[in-house]
């Protein structure tokens, strides 16, 4: 059995003061959930404050990105060891990073290797654009992102991996994929790619999340799918009234 996993990606929202207010609502709401791996991924500037507030809770902390180099003259970047000081998790290869900041499968691969080498659990995002989806290239694109993004990673180093399937056309658009459609991509594309990379047993052990306009009202339908193990939640993670029911749905 794969333990359900729900992560909230706060993106470029919440000052330190705003993060404290959100956590004041989130922590009590999530305190009764014990059989779900729960993670929040706030902006870099709030990590230290959020880490302090999460002490003693079952809620994990993640970053939204990092550089692959250990150190150097990379102004504005954050090194893996800097993330690992505060976090257990890191989101890598999010479609917004790919679309707006030039990330490629190759740079994602470097980051995944660096994250694993620093004891971090990478949440690796894959997913196709609307154009790729409508032209019938979903399997081709997602399979390529999986294989190039995870190439050169050996067992047992790969075991902490978490994959997030995020169809780009469903992120922030209010247009979620269907639960059955998302499950089909996980079952027919993502797990076979994991099998090719790491073997059948690991392919069944790795958690695969759905992300893309995840709402509390739809969460149970997605979590009931056999190959979907949780969610990477964007906008809904910024409201306790939305995020807590999503985590509770995963627990059920």
Nutshell version of this structure?
Helix content is 45%, strand content 15%. With 252 residues, it is an alpha/beta fold.
How would you explain this protein's 3D organization?
With 252 residues, the protein is an alpha/beta fold. The protein is 45% helix and 15% strand. The protein has an eight-stranded parallel β-sheet with strand order 7-6-5-4-3-2-1-8. The radius of gyration is 17 Å and the shape is globular. The two termini are 14 Å apart.
Number of strands: 8
Order of secondary-structure elements: EHEHEHEHHEHHEHHEHEH
Which percent band covers the strand fraction?
5-15%
**Largest sheet, order of strands side by side?**
7-6-5-4-3-2-1-8
For the residues shown, what is the average pLDDT?
96
Our count of domains comes out at 1
Give the class-level CATH name: Alpha Beta
Main sheet: strands, sense, barrel: 8 strands, parallel
What's the arrangement of secondary structure elements?
Blueprint: E1 5-9, H1 16-30, E2 37-41, H2 47-54, E3 59-63, H3 80-86, E4 89-92, H4 95-101, H5 105-117, E5 121-126, H6 130-134, H7 138-149, E6 162-165, H8 179-198, H9 200-205, E7 207-210, H10 216-223, E8 230-233, H11 240-251
Parallel strand pairs: 1-2, 1-8, 2-3, 3-4, 4-5, 5-6, 6-7
